[in-house]
Amino acid sequence: MSAVPTTTATPPLLAVENLRKHYSAPRQWLRKARPPVQAVDDVSFTVAKGETLSLVGESGCGKTTTAKSVLRLVEPTAGSVRLEGEELLALSPEQMRQRRRDLQIIFQDPYASLNPRLKAGDIVAEPLRNFGGMTAAERAERVQWLFARVGLRPDAASRFPHEFSGGQRQRLGIARALALNPKLIVCDEPVSALDVSVQAQVVNLLMDLQAEFGIAYLFVAHDLAVVRHISHRVAVMYLGHVVEVADRDTLFAAPRHPYTEILLSAAPVPNPRTPARRILLQGDPPSPANPPSGCRFHTRCPLAQAVCREQRPALTPRDGDGTHQVACHLR
After folding, report:
1. How far is CA 157 from CA 143, 152, 181, 255, in A?
2. Is residue 281 part of a domain?
3. Are 37 and 289 in contact (CB under 8 A)?
4. Residues 323, 320: Cα–Cα separation, whole Å
5. How far, in Å, CA of 123 to CA of 175, rounded?
6. What's the domain count of the chain?
7. DSSP sequence for 4-48
8. Which of 24, 172, 286, 316 is most buried, by the most CB atoms less than 10 A from its CB?
């Protein structure tokens, strides 16, 4: 997959700046108020038209919260989210509803994300009914086309979700997300609940749809093999922060941030004869309700120095064209 460059002459499709999402902890009787959980804190990135940007990191680092904040499925605490230059966080609920034509999501669990009481054809047609503009015959024709495009038989439209396999249900979710010709689709770990053999089929389908329709993906994933296959660029998150952003090949070949190095070293290698280079990460992640001062990774970083404990490093370019950004005082 070739890289999709983002230049100053070509503004990004999606621009996220200083995004924050803090959850207030419930106050218990006769106890002091607990500090808010800083699930996402000062996250910035861009996604170009037709590009796949993957968010990776260990569980609890804020990947899914970031993705849902972009869609306003959860309301951000602060920051900016601009789609084609329009500030989404300033839109009223009705204005945001209309903008959702361009923003769709594929959920992680294909078993829970489909209404079990609706037939498959009605599930895919639901976005078309919600936004209007089509007759019943036109909707039926569009649904048939979508079924064929995602690899489902058109006669499956009359079946209920429980009659499909996991991979087929996720194809239904993809068809539903594709119904309104969106410009950006958030993929929230769309293959993690599927068998390995089915994962490759679904990932290849997503790539084919991107090549055909020019869709941009914000792809949330744990599986680094999937990320390496589908991504143009990768953003690595740790404890609510983005610590490194680079194009796919650069990140996997020459990571700069210590956490990225450790994360990539934990990925299994396909050849058992390949020498292991795993780097063990000491300790547990700090609580997002009480994050460390300075660099949030310094409590587990083998390279940490005094400046790491005192000052938070900014995400700054470390190459000539500014595409490789790292938040580290030492790298």
Report:
1. 8, 9, 20, 46
2. no
3. yes
4. 8
5. 9
6. 1
7. ----TTS--SEEEEEEEEEEPPPPPTTSPPPPPEEEEEEEEEEE-
8. 172
How distant, in Å, are the alpha carbons of 10, 233, 330 from that of 47?
A: 11, 9, 27
pLDDT digits (tens, 9 = 90+) for 85-124: 999 999 999 999 999 999 999 999 888 999 999 999 999 9
Q: Is 169 helix (H, G, I), strand (E, B) or coil?
A: helix
- Average pLDDT, 10 consecutive residues per value, the chain (331 residues): 51 95 79 84 95 94 95 95 96 94 93 93 94 90 95 93 94 96 96 89 96 96 93 96 95 94 83 70 84 92 91 89 90 81
SS3 60: coil
173 Cβ contact list (under 8 Å, min separation 6): 106, 107, 110, 113, 114, 190
Can you read off the two tokens belonging to residue 32? 């002091």
Mapped onto helix, strand or coil, the DSSP state of residue 310 is helix
Do the domain assignments include residue 236? Answer: yes
Query: Which residues are bridge partners to 234 per DSSP?
Result: 54, 246
Name the DSSP letter for residue 313: P
What range defines the domain where residue 207 resides?
14-22+38-256
Q: In this structure, is residue 330 part of a structural domain?
A: no
Distances (CA, A) of 16 to 45, 60, 78, 136, 151: 5, 20, 11, 38, 34
Q: What is the pLDDT of residues 117-173, one digit of tens each?
A: 999 999 999 999 998 888 999 999 999 999 999 999 989 999 999 999 999 999 999
- Whether 71 is in a domain gets the answer yes
Report the distance separating Cα 241 and Cα 38, nearest Å.
10
pTM of the model: 0.91
Residue 231's Cβ-count burial label (10 Å; 0-12, 13-18, 19+) is: buried
Contact 123, 114 (CB under 8 A): yes
User: What CATH number is given to the structural domain containing 94?
Assistant: 3.40.50.300
